[in-house]
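Next up, a specimen:

>
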Amino acid sequence: MPTRTKFVFLMHPYEAKRVKANTGRLTHLSLRDSELHLGIGFDEHEAVQALIQDPRNFPVLLYPGRESIDLSTVGQSDPQLSILRDQLASRRLVVFLLDATWRLVRPMFRLSLSLQRLPRIMFSGAPPSRYIIKRQPEPGCLSTLEATHELLLALDRSGLEAYTQPTQLLDLFQRMQEFQIRRTAENALLGDRRHGPRLSGERPAGAGHTGPKRRRIFPAAPAAVAGPTSPHS
């Protein structure tokens, strides 16, 4: 899929081992202008630093927080959006995404001062995760593929991207999960349930602890939200 924006997925080594549920790699393979790099700290990573320091690029980090520009809420005349547009008139938008669990993302962020110094962007109001074979720790948590899709929608609404195929990533996501579910059923018929994915309704005993830091970033979803809405962010 072609995009104006270059996406750079920074994947934790632990995430790279999770082949069956690795949506970061699937997203990278789906976007024509994207890169994927493994690591924990990236201040000494030559390829990452080259992208950050290239004057033709305008690098930003997708990371939620009070210091981030929420592309889902800024108006067309918002000064922050105007600054972004001015920068992108002569430079390419390069979005860095940290691909790991929330527990592992925070150390990746702390260990990379060059990423901390980048402008930060985010989106909000996204539908609940469409993950069936994996349960997300919080209602606001999304897979890397879903986060990329929501960001593309937000960039498109802001006039910073032309997201002309908004169903393509989600269709791939659904097909990946359907494949895993079929394989799990086949394995069950053969008496092997060791390596199948856990459906979202299943949860190990003792799971469900909500960390206060994660709760501040991902507040509980409103009770009225019942499922995915039409793509629009």
Summary: Residues 67 and 120 are 7 Å apart (CA to CA). The longest helix spans residues 168-189.
